Amino acid sequence: MLFTFKLKSYRISLVFIFQIVVLMVGIILGKGKQMNKYIVVLISITFLITALYIFLKRRSVYSKFIFIAMIFCFLGDITLAGFIPGGFIFGGGMFAIAHIIFIIGYIRTIRAQNGIVFNKAFFISAVFYYVILIALWIVKLRYMKNSGGLQIGIFAYGICLTTMASLAAALCKNNKKYLKTAVGAVFFIISDSFIGMSHAIKVSYSEAIIWTTYVIALYGIIYGGELCE
Q1: How far is residue 158's CA from residue 140's CA, in Å, rounded to a whole number?
Q2: Does 48 score more than 90 pLDDT?
Q3: Do residues 181 and 225 make contact, with C-beta atoms less than 8 angstroms apart?
Q4: DSSP line for 10-42
C-alpha cells in the first residue's frame, strides 16, 4: 500500500517536472516577454488531464470539482492564447466560472468533513485579500480607457478570486493537509495581480512572472487534493 502511494506521488512529481521544463522552454523562447501560445496549450492541457486522472483515481468531492473547474481554466487559457475568439472578456469569464466552481468544491469538501466553512482563517484572509483587490482595482481604473461594464466585470472577477482564496484558507484551517490548496490560491492572486499591474506600470519579465506563479497556483490546487483525502 505504501509502495503504491509512493509510486503515485512519483508519477505526479514527474508530471509537474515536465510542466516546469515546458514552462522554462516557453519563457526562453519568448525571452520572458511573451509566452508561445502552443506552450500555453501544452501546459494547460497537461493540468486538465492530470486533474481528470486524479478525479478518476480518487472519486472525491474535492477532485471532482477541481476537474470541472480546470475545464474552464483550460477554456480560458486557449481563449487568451487566441485559439478561441472572445479575447480578454470571454477568457476572464471562463476563469471567473472556474473560481466559482473552486468555491463550491471547497465548501462541499469542508462540509463533507464536518468542518466550519466561515471560520477565523476565512475572515482574516477575506479582509486581507479584499483590501488588495480594492487597492489594485483603484490603481487599474486610472489606466483604463474603457468604463462601465468592463470595470464592473473586473471587480466581479476579483471578488470571485479573493473569495476562492479565502475559502481555500478556511479549507486548510479545517484540515492542514490542504496547505497546498491554500498556497496555490495565494499564487493565483499573485499571478492575476501581476496581470493587473502590467497594464498600469511596466514590470520587467511580467509574462514570465505571471505564468510561473500561475503554474505554481494550479499545482497547489490540483495536486493538493491527491494527498488530502
Answers
A1: 12
A2: yes
A3: yes
A4: HHHHHHHHHHHHHHHHHHHHTTTT---HHHHHH
Q: Cα 103 to chain center, whole Å?
A: 12
Integer CA distances (angstroms), 2 to 6, 9, 195, in order = 6, 11, 42
The pLDDT assigned to 22 comes to 81
Which grid cell is 210? 505571471
Which residues, 6 or more positions from 49, have their beta carbon under 8 angstroms from its beta carbon?
none
Q: Is the dihedral of CA 94, 100, 103, 108 positive or negative?
A: negative
The cell numbers describing 161, all together, are 478570486
pLDDT higher than threshold 80 for residue 54: yes
- List, in order, residues 6 or more apart from 98 with CB less than 8 Å away: 69, 70, 72, 73, 76
The tens digit of pLDDT for each residue in 186-228 reads 999 999 888 766 665 666 677 788 888 999 999 999 988 655 4
Q: How confident is the model at residue 9 (pLDDT cuts 50, 70, 90)?
A: low
Q: How far is CA 80 from the centre of its chain?
A: 15
The domains of the chain are located at 2-227
Rounded CA gap, 112 and 10, in Å?
A: 28
